[in-house]
Amino acid sequence: MTPLALTIIQGVVVLALAPWATGLVRWFKARLQGRHGASPLLPYVSYATLLKKEMVVSPTTSWVFGLTPFVVLASAIVATLILPLVAVDGALAAHGNFIVLAGVLALGAVFLVLGGLDPGSAFGGMGSSREMTLAALVEPSMIAVFAAFAVASGSGTLSDMLTVAGSGLLAHPGLILSLVAFVFVLLAENARYPVDNPATHLELTMVHEAMVLEYSGPNLAMLEYASSLKLTIFALLFANFLFPLPLAGVGSGLVMLVAAVLGTVAKIGVTMFLLALLESSMPKMRFYRMQEYMTISFFAALSGLVLVLA
Fold it and tell me: Which residues form a coiled coil (predicted)?
């Protein structure tokens, strides 16, 4: 199996499973809360329906509003191709440095904020303001988490960091604190409980939804799909840090490739169940307490980095 083939296969698998991951966490939450719940395949239908709908664009918007969905989706796709999600040592694995990852994610977040501000609506401005506040709190924690793995593995690329994942965590106990901090980052970056409620449009709680309220049709489909893709990326990263196998590599045969794909499906299923269980057992936190939430995350990540350095 060549590096280029690994990258293509990983991209196809993750892009295909992303809507299912979003539908799965919704279905698990419904079951845990005593409801029947919609099919996990519903997001596929929802995105296809949005692609057929007409777009309604405010006359006050500029080119930034139309460009935002493409940049946000492109940043999520780039992250999908450079990270070790289904395979390691892909054609773009060398570009999977954690600083590059932070920059790619920040690019999508900045354009999403600009897209929320561009129409001049009250909700868009409120959501954009909240998003930038959260981004300023989340980025230091995410950098500290990956820095701890970089020090432990001796490399800044995510593929090399997996050499200290799984059983390698026992040799570096400080990385366990880093993984705890990564859970905080995962919830905040993907607008999940207790940071945000992805299933509401109430002005007191929404952050991500406020920025996309002015979008419709194919533009909204791209933004929602990018959100699903980002959730899948973070979930697989967390799962791979805990259980890095099975992952396909250069020279892997068909059996190993099938095992890697099935392992990816299983990892998504388990992480979405854990996410649904977590969200069903905690309330939404007030926005003005976010600094406390992310302070815990940052000090957990910083403690992990200090322990690894020591």
Answer: none
